[in-house]
Amino acid sequence: MKSTLELRIRGFSRVKYSNEYVELELLKPTFEETMTRDVDTERLEESLDSLALSILGTKPDVDFVEIETRVDNTTYVYSTSRFVSRDYTPVLIAPRPSRVHAIYVAPPGDDGVSIDLTSEPPRVFTDELYVYETPIIVKSGASNRVLVVESNAGTFVVDLSALPSRRISRGSRKSRKAKRKRRKRCRSRKRRTKTTSSS
């Protein structure tokens, strides 16, 4: 059975936040609109899924869509997103996109239980960035550190030493130069082989 529903739609793009210890994939709002639409309430999830996928297909700058509506005095929230990179593992799970206020990466306190938030200044966010099923890459050197994210949905605490870390390194100028030399040597060897075989 179709009913005319009011839909609140929010779109987000993925953005990276990185410091010397972690790399997070947060959400940044791209658009918000309200529309009325005839929706089959008996197949509500399928209808909202179809609408969300059409938005992802027509808006290349949108990676995540959330649709909120009310049916019979009950609020329904549906969301879908594009494929997340395999490099990431969702760690911070919020029930809905929640605005980030501050991020700390701090060592535990002397008692081993509390967190020493005074050791390093937090990264305070004035931009509108959101946490939701947020993936994390832990960089080497983050052992014995705790990630604290303050948001509208509450405070999330993640023990980084409990997550696998990976070394994120970008090719230095020296290494790139060496690779170019190796490629040149390979090409010149092939040319010499060709010349020898044709003679």
Shape descriptor reads: elongated
Radius of gyration: 24 Å
Q: How are helices and strands ordered from N to C?
A: EEHEEEEEEEEEEH
User: What is the β-strand count?
Assistant: 12
Distance between the termini: 81 Å
Strand share of the residues?
A: 35-45%
Low-confidence stretches: 167-199
Helices, by number, come to 2
Structural class from helices and strands? alpha+beta
Give the % helix. 10-25%
What's the mean pLDDT score? 77
Total discrete domains: 1
The main pleated sheet reads as: 7 strands, mixed
What would you say this structure looks like, in words?
With 199 residues, this protein is α+β, with helices and mostly antiparallel strands. It has one domain (2-166). Helix content is 21%, strand content 45%. The protein is built from 2 helices and 12 strands; from the N terminus they run ββαββββββββββα. It has helices at 44-58, 173-198, and strands at 2-18, 22-40, 64-71, 74-81, 89-92, 98-106, 123-124, 130-131, 134-139, 146-151, 154-159, 165-166. Strands 1, 2, 3, 4, 5, 9 and 12 form a 7-stranded mixed β-sheet that branches. Strands 6, 7, 8, 10 and 11 form a 5-stranded antiparallel β-sheet that branches. The longest helix has 26 residues, at 173-198. The protein is elongated, with a radius of gyration of 24 Å. Residues 167-199 have low confidence and may be disordered.
